[in-house]
Amino acid sequence: MQNKKRLSPSSAYVKAFFMLIGLIAVYVAIRTLSKNAGPMRYLQQAGDEFDRVMDLRGLDSLNVADVQKQLAGFWCFDSPVEPHTTIWEHDRLELKENGIIWQVRRTCVRLPDNTVDTTTYVNHRYLQPKSYYAGSPNTYLCDGKIIDHVWLTYADTCYAPQPVHFIKEQSARGADSIVTREENFSRELTLANDTLYFENRIYTPYPDSSLDNFFPANVLEYIEKFTVPRCDKLSGLLAIVNNRLRRSFAQINVDVREREAVFDVIARYYAPLMHSCLLDRDDVETRKMPDSLSFSAEITREGTLTDIELHGENFLTVYFHDVVLETMRQWQLPRLKAQREPESFAFTVALKSRLAGR
What's the pTM? Predict the structure, then answer.
């Protein structure tokens, strides 16, 4: 019989010590993940995306043509407008049987002085269904390419993020405008019960038999008019509207910074604007957008936010987290009349979707 070698007391203690260290490390890791669900949610998100990819089924050329015919038409989306609404949209989308898209979206913002500012987005692109989901055969994954798109604004300068190229020109009407060109993209699109679900909006057929007023007059012509060099800073709807709001709120001076007033500005203007723009981005995962934003920050006398910290399990990835932080650093609140040390605030605001109830 082979005798087993006994460990010396010192060796046994060393082995037990390292086992204890390992158990402590596992315990700390589990506690960290349970407190900060971001990594766990990211892993779950990756698993969900893998399942969705495995559910895809390809379309042949005949099926692609048939789907494009079904999608073709004139579609409209109008977000509800009530007396207290601060941001709303009017969107017109023409889908042609050959996959060409013409789109005009007007985003309206009711500024603090009760005037309404409008930014018009003109989009010319191509979209082709490539596959569908076996579990949802009316949902198609499409490949697309932007041909040109333009933002038309008034009395503002718009700047461009890389790698998208923006071009701006002062038009005869006094509108600063920019054209962009970008790489290929992918979109999901669902057609069900005479309703089109596309880019986080619900479109219905245009009700008017006459198409004379479907697109605003002469707007599509702007696609062909811009040849000046591109801008070199951040741009897009978020930057355009934030610029408007910054100018408006910077002109308002208050004696004291009341918590309720700060919350009202964020909840009515900045939170819904940020949410709407995040829904339109390709570079952040928005399919599982959080319902609320919890954060703390210090607000300076000038009305800017510093030392921003996000709380809770709101954000799926580090990149998404950074995008939200960068957006919040652009917020402008009313200024204090007198010099004062930065004040600390903590809020939880709802992130309301344009597609509530979908």
Answer: 0.72
